[in-house]
Amino acid sequence: MSKLKTTRRAALGLVAAAAASFGLQANAGGHGIDLAGKTVEWIIPFSETGGSAKWANFYAPLLSEALPGQPTVVVKFMPGAGSTKGANFFQEQSYEDGTLIFGSSGSTQFPFLLGDPRVKYNYADWNVVLASGTGGVAYLPPEMAAKMDGMNAAGLQGEDFIYGNQGATRLDLVPTLAWEMLGLNVESVMGIKGRGDGRLMFERGEANIDYQTSSSYLKGVTPLVEAGTAVPMMTWGSLDDAGNIVRDPTFPDIPTFKEVCEATDGCETSGEKWDAWKAFFVAGFPAQKMVFLPNGASNDAIVTYTKAFEDVKARADFAEISGARLGKYPQMTGNKAQTALASATQVPEAAKAFVVNWLQEKYGVSLK
Amino acid sequence: MDIIATALPALGDAWGLILQPIVLGYLVLGVLMGLCIGVFPGLGGIAGLSLLLPFMFGMDPILGLALMIGMVAVVPTSDTFASVLMGIPGSSASQATVLDGFPMAKRGQAARALSAAFASSLFGGLVGASFLTIFILVARPIVLEFRTPELLMITLFGLSMVGILAGRVAIKGLVAAGLGMLIGTIGEGASSGDLRMSSYDFPYLTDGLKLVIVGLGIFAIPEIIALLRQDRAISQEPQLGGGWLEGVKDWFANIWLSVRCSIIGVVVGVIPGLGGSVVDWIAYGHAVQTTPDKSNFGKGEVRGVIGPESSNNAKEGGGLVPTLLFGIPGSGSMAIFIGAIALLGSGQIEVGPAMLKNNLDITYSIVWLLALANVVGTVICIAASGGIAKLTTIRFSLLAPFLFMIISFAAFQSGQNLMDLVALFAIGFLGILMRRFDWSRPAFLIGFVLSNPAETYANQALQIAQSRFRKGFEEGLDYIFSPIVIVLIVITVISVVLGLRQAKNIMAEGDVQSGSKRAPLVFLLCVTGYIGYAFYDAASIPSFSRDRTFPMFVAGVCLVGCLMLLIRMMLKPETDTIFADREKNGEDADATHGLWPTLAWFAGLLILTSLLGFILALGLFLFTFLKIRAGLGNLSAAIYTACGIVFMCAMAGLLNRDFPPGLLQEYANLPWPLG
Questions:
Q1: ipTM score for this prediction
Q2: Distances (CA, A) of B108 to B112, B120, B164, B252, B300
Q3: Cβ separation of A364 and B192 shorter than 8 Å?
Q4: Could you tell me the sign of the dihedral formed by the alpha carbons of A75, A78, A81, A84, in that order?
Q5: Which residues from chain B sit within 8 angstroms of residue A14, using beta carbons?
Q6: Which distant-in-sequence residues (6+ apart) come within 8 Å of B337 by Cβ?
Q7: pTM confidence score
Q8: Does residue B455 carry a pLDDT above 80?
Q9: What is the DSSP letter of B440?
């Protein structure tokens, strides 16, 4: 049973959040812009209901507190065309006074990388100030997991798998390509509205393979694992400083896809297929969500926002409050964010061509 | 017994948490805010919750929950005002309420209809909470029994309600529903993203049309235009009859209907994936089927109000099951609710499979806060209903410009695109014509609402079934024909047979006289043309894509229906019901103002908006309308206009919403709210 502190008084309720945003904040002075009395609009190109909304709603009050002048930060949702509408809108905006920022996601990155005809935006024009990473975990029903020999997935190669897929060109292409490389026969059932629906399909016994991003896995699948109805198969891994795939720090006991692939006959961790998978994994997970200032932002503004996000990260309670809501993943600023942006949006031509061709052959999706 | 041993103490803890003055205070605060937002059609819980989100971070969980639940719980209660008084479906939960609630208001019985609706809402909320208290403990395995074939069958059951609402010519109702489904398929297909009836060169339609726009267009605009043409108050009786007490008595006389519809509401609400968008129609259908004398439905039968209103508040409770137990939101507002829960306190409440084990007391608190919020909200609403009902005695030409203002704003919020207003106008025009020629608008809306679930579940069920059949014939059969599916098939068949037999007696939109042949024929040919083009368009999608199957199937069936209608039109004389035309006889024919000049006012608002932006256009529109059409003097017209604009700006400012920009805003950088 949860124990709640209900002794707090009204002042700690509604008022607390308001009061907190007026709290004293040391200003760096010199460089930087002052946003006192202004309203910062944070555009999220998705609806109020998605994962990006959760992420932005988590950061917005903290950012408000950390920016000089403590401006009000409002999250504005601009859904449409799988986030290309909002991103195209942001592309048309020019920098004015630093009161406009944009939050992108893997679903914004992939159409950009794949050359979707609707994309009118270019990441190279924008100025990154924060990059948030995540990971992903694939899991199986116990009777399927039992057919794996340690990390060797060869025992699964003769089985028929059903997977609830959100869309061929979405983040789901990372798991589906990985399973194909392992030689698994996975049939995608399309039309899933979110990964939560995919998990429900797994729970109902209709799908028999699934993946979730880390925070969803912790909330939704860990209880199933404890109850014995799901077994983790592999994580996508995490990147070390040199860009190598290593075990995901949130799930150190679960092998990575790289390890499983190495242990399985017919799966290779080199060659164009592997390079393509890795490129899209890097684009989709370790820098999944990013915050940008628009084209032409002044250096002062970039410094100010970078400093604000660094201050948020430096809060004594940041590990505690972010752990439950975002998972234990790097929240990168400054040069690290730049590197993350570069790796997430610059995919080798060969990898791109491979995936475009693969989508065409496997799903009949043509990106023209 | 084990279950009860854990449940009872948790229930006690929950009440201990709820019954603190401060918690109740927050609940009432949430309820008041929810009522203010809920009366605004088309915004609903999503706008309200977004407004609260910034305050949720780190807030004491029980206080935050009280505030949010207070707000969410009363939206399906307060949206009844718009449905009953103005004929505007306030949210998807109160579409069916319009059918009989609005005719009651027209007969001067608005207060009675409102209080019957509120009493039903309250009761539904309480039945829902009581049912959930037990059911939530055993819900998980039961919910998991509802696989894709079961979901598909429930969707089809919802569609079978078209049978009851089809109107006097059953095939016309079916074609109307099919047209609704085809409009629902516009945009990117869910399966492989192929485009239906749209193109990337014209991006607006690729996301499909939103329910808010279609609901407002198909129901609200035709009613507003029709009333405006007659130039009188909504209520035909100068003296309002039927006080609020009478409505409560009506509800009490039909208490068993209310119980049954509440149970329907909870049960359908519990099933994830349908989002309860069909609940009010199913409840309405049930109310019709269980009433011996069906002749009053559509003309102001109070049972037609009690049924849907009992179910829609109960549904909110049912919707907590997928939300809390699976972490899968049953609706847009529940999705924000999940997100907000993560912000509360130190984030220790984790919605999902572990919720019951770790947070049973919180779960119960949520269930009963919801019930309590219903009680508070209903009492306030009933108290207010007598006064608010007086709106129906105001001359409609004074009310209409503000209604245009509100629905335009609401429509714009769905996509934040000027095209939203164009779409609203286009669907509104379709609604006007459907009303004129007696094509069932409820059937159209049911078709639209259920189009996406029907397509998605049909495709998924088929695909999974194929995979099962490959493993073994028996396994495939077991998957498709589970006991639940068989029961649902039986219910659906009975409902269709009964519905079609009774449909002739149920004129959901009143009696319509027949007139000449030409106009109804032209409209039918236009509908046939659209359906034919939709068929061609879907057929040109490559054949390996699943996105073509559903629209082709629906369009194919509809074309057969259209052909039958055409043949009947050729054979029958012009007095036949198939040639129903409101412009020939009755209210519309005798109206003071013509259709086109009245519609032109609304078109004028849209055109001005596209040039000057919403607020400037609104100022011009309100003033000229009030001065010319309503005949007010300069001063009063100016005062009314100012009130309207101040109200609009206050609402938008509070909810942090933008207004549609026009051409002017492209060139000049104007301050909010002008820019």
A1: 0.87
A2: 9, 20, 27, 21, 10
A3: yes
A4: negative
A5: 55, 59, 67
A6: B49, B68, B72, B323, B329
A7: 0.88
A8: yes
A9: -
